[in-house]
Inverse folding.
């Protein structure tokens, strides 16, 4: 039954990892605006169709920043 | 596509002015231009997300010249390094997904912009640009040209970088981590089976639980210790004392338990408690990102204004740097930032920000003009009399009311109850302790700690946050936005309601025009219509729009006498329009109402009266409210409307006229000195003092996104007649809290009977605590929603007939 030490240690490490991920996500400001990204994700396709037909040089700078 | 409406902005098209472009119809050139810009840049997708999402671009010539001034620009920028600049702009027009789309594709419209990101709830766009490729002024002008004019005010100039406090979220995250893991690890011991492997690993589990509980105990719950310490220090017993005591006792007892191997301790209940209470705190903290409750005149005033130098050249000057004697240039739609004297021949100033009065006021050369007005029409020149902070309106903010923090004046219901709860709890704990001391010493300690643990007022502390948090959300959905949850408690206590008149009980959207006097025939109307056509006076313009369209005639003689009226001759008929002095017909109290008198061919016909239009449902609302509240109307205007108001409103309503902003403030103060709980409902900047002084200041706003003075709540003007419902609802919310207090005390009694008899096992505690929390939360949520529905029709059923009973 000594394996229980290993298993519980692993489970705690996983949980700590998620806690860390959560805190990092909050700190980066992801949750400050919980509406706009949901709308924005629907745009990308339209943008590509449009930029293909665009005769002007296409801006190569990354369009979205998260 | 709807042919009747503009493809760009959706406004109904006036057939004569319709512009067809690219098979689409537009209401004006501005809208067409925006469409052109978008289609040339392959951005016409803009119209796919939402039908007619745009706004007509306004003429901004010269308005943003101040953005050439580098000091001002530097203040507005959020980030600046070498050539990379970042700016956040507030754009009130942001309202749909098309807006997000177009604003995030700004780089296609202007080179130099690298990225732009919209924050929809805050209505802000954050633009990163290269200062060599473009400038802030160019960006702002671009935004204006596509109908997204940013709102830049003096407030932007003053504000520093905002720090967002996210500590509550971290605390909840940590508490949830501890709570979840401890629950899982305590499970084997709940069943207390004396099995070989449980006994074998008991020590490991317990010490692991202890270790995991530490972050929750020391970090997540830290706020409660601080608050409890502060409240003891100030001698006020608030709810955080029994909470902190409960948590500390729980922790110590549990540690003792596992050290001496008495049992598994209460770590699961402790972390659960911390988690739920923090959750309650979060729930209560409903904020409206796009609203601001802390505005003062700074958010209305421009950053810079055009100054005319001695040599006649123009320059942008920062508003704070304006000095007495300076000459300023005020353009159309620009705000006058300081008191001064008009130099130009005439001006028409719209004081609707200040008073709520929609009709612009005519000023002549040499007249004093006050800060806060908006110039309508031509460019004017003025000479400064006072600097910004010394102007008539802005001086109001030097009053003490704006200096002190107002939060302290109110004691929450939870704190009031805990004043009795805390001593009673401690009393019970000590009595049981001494009782058991004579029987068994170790049980005595057990009982003592068990009482403090089980009575830890988790449910009590959760009641108010969850009730008020939910009420806040429900009210928010009904367009009544409150600053925070304590406002609801105060709302329930109000016994006097003070209304501002202009802009609050009247609408400033359309003013009804009525005609009094001898009837006018079609020919008279035709003459009148054509005489008005040449005049630029605001009243003439409105009357011109009011009269049905007539055929055009050219006046043979037309003269406009400033400040008096019009003298015109058409086809041999003479027409005189204007004030009573001009026509020399003095009818009774003519000066008290806004009137335009008409005289045709020397014969006095009558007058057009510009009535203040009262809001719909005003009479019903007042007669409904007058049953429970003392009602007062506090107006800055003259008493010309007294008779109408007396007729319309219940006789118990007090009417006070001719009040200056400071007098309004003092009036409220006097009411409060009489022991009244006053709610003030106002709109303009001149009510700002009264709103701050009153127990609750509610600002009524036609457009909640833009203008409202500092207040405790913002009410959308369309919801005006529902004030009665809101008041009633706040009372019901308090009732719900009391009921739920009863419920949580019942839980406490059950728990205490276990505790006093010395039988509180960790399992019982682990069941009772979450159970009580869940019951309370669901009870208050259901109750507040039921009340929200029930009280709805009550306002509608009300018949104005009861008004007679009242009188």
């Amino acid at each position: 039954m000594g394996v229980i030490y290993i298993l519980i240690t692993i489970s705690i490490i996983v949980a700590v990892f998620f806690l860390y991920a959560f805190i990092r996500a909050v700190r980066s400001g992801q949750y400050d605006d919980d509406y706009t990204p949901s709308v924005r994700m629907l745009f990308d396709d339209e943008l590509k169709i449009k930029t293909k037909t665009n005769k002007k040089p296409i801006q190569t700078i990354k369009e979205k920043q998260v | 596509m709807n042919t009747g409406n503009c493809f760009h902005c959706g406004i109904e098209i006036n057939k004569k002015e319709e512009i067809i472009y690219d098979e689409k119809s537009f209401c004006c050139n501005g809208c067409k231009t925006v469409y052109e810009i978008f289609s040339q840049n392959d951005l016409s997708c803009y119209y796919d997300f939402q039908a007619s999402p745009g706004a007509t671009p306004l003429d901004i010539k010269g308005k943003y010249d101040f953005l050439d001034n580098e000091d001002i620009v530097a203040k507005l920028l959020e980030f600046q390094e070498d050539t990379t600049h970042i700016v956040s702009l507030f754009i009130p027009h942001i309202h749909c997904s098309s807006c997000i789309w177009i604003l995030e594709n700004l780089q296609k419209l202007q080179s130099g912009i690298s990225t732009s990101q919209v924050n929809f709830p805050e209505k802000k766009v954050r633009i990163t640009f290269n200062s060599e490729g473009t400038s802030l002024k160019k960006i702002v002008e671009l935004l204006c040209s596509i109908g997204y004019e940013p709102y830049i005010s003096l407030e932007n100039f003053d504000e520093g970088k905002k720090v967002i406090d996210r500590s509550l979220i971290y605390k909840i995250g940590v508490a949830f981590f501890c709570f979840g893991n401890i629950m899982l690890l305590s499970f084997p011991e709940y069943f207390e089976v004396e099995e070989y492997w449980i006994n074998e690993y008991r020590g490991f589990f317990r010490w692991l639980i202890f270790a995991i509980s530490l972050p929750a105990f020391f970090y997540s719950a830290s706020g409660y210790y601080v608050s409890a310490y502060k409240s003891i220090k100030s001698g006020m017993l608030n709810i955080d004392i029994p909470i902190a005591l409960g948590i500390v006792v729980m922790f110590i007892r549990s540690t003792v338990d596992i050290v001496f191997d008495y049992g598994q301790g209460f770590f699961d209940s402790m972390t659960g408690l911390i988690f739920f209470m923090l959750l309650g705190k979060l729930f209560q903290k409903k904020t409206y990102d796009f609203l601001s409750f802390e505005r003062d005149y700074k958010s209305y005033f421009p950053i810079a204004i055009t100054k005319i130098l001695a040599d006649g050249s123009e320059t942008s000057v920062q508003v704070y740097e304006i000095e007495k004697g300076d000459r300023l240039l005020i353009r159309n739609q620009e705000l006058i930032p300081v008191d001064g004297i008009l130099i130009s021949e005439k001006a028409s100033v719209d004081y609707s920000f200040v008073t709520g009065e929609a009709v612009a006021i005519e000023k002549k050369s040499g007249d004093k003009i006050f800060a806060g007005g908006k110039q309508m029409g031509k460019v004017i020149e003025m000479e400064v009399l006072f600097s910004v902070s010394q102007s008539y309106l802005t001086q109001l903010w030097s009053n003490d009311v704006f200096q002190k923090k107002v939060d302290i004046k109110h004691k929450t219901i939870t704190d009031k109850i805990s004043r009795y709860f805390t001593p009673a709890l401690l009393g019970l704990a000590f009595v049981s302790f001494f009782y058991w001391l004579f029987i068994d010493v170790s049980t005595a300690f057990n009982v003592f700690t068990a009482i403090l643990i089980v009575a830890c007022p988790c449910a009590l502390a959760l009641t108010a946050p969850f009730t008020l948090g939910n009420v806040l959300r429900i009210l928010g959905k009904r367009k009544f936005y409150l600053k925070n949850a304590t406002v609801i408690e105060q709302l329930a206590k109000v016994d006097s309601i003070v209304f501002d008149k202009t802009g609050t009980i009247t609408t400033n959207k359309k003013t009804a025009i009525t005609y009094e006097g001898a009837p006018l025939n079609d020919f008279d109307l035709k003459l009148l219509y054509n005489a008005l056509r040449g005049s630029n006076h605001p009243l003439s313009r409105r009357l011109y729009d009011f009269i049905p369209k007539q055929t055009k005639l050219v006046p043979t003689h037309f003269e406009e006498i400033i400040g008096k009226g019009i003298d015109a001759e058409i086809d041999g008929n003479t027409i005189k329009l204007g004030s009573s002095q001009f026509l020399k017909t003095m009818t009774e109290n003519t000066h008290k109402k806004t009137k335009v008198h008409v005289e045709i061919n020397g014969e006095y016909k009558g007058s057009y009266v510009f009535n203040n239009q009262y809001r719909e449902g005003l009479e019903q609302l007042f007669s409904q409210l007058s049953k429970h509240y003392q009602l007062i109307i506090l107006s800055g205007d003259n008493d010309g409307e007294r008779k109408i108001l007396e007729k319309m409103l219940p006789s118990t309503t007090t009417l006070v006229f001719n009040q200056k902003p400071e007098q309004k403030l003092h009036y409220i103060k006097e009411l409060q000195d009489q022991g009244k709980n006053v709610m003030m409902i106002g709109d303009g900047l001149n009510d700002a003092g009264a709103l701050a002084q009153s127990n609750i200041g509610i600002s009524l706003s036609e457009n909640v996104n833009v203008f409202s003075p500092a207040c405790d709540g913002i009410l959308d003007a369309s919801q005006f007649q529902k004030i009665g419902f809101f008041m009633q609802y706040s009372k019901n919310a308090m009732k719900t809290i009391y009921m739920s207090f009863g419920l949580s005390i019942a839980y406490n009694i059950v728990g205490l009977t276990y505790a006093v008899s010395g039988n509180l096992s960790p399992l019982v505690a682990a069941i009772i605590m979450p159970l009580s929390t869940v019951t309370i939360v669901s009870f208050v949520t259901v109750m507040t929603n039921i009340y929200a529905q029930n009280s709805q029709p009550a306002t509608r059923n009300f018949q104005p007939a009861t008004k007679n009973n009242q009188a």
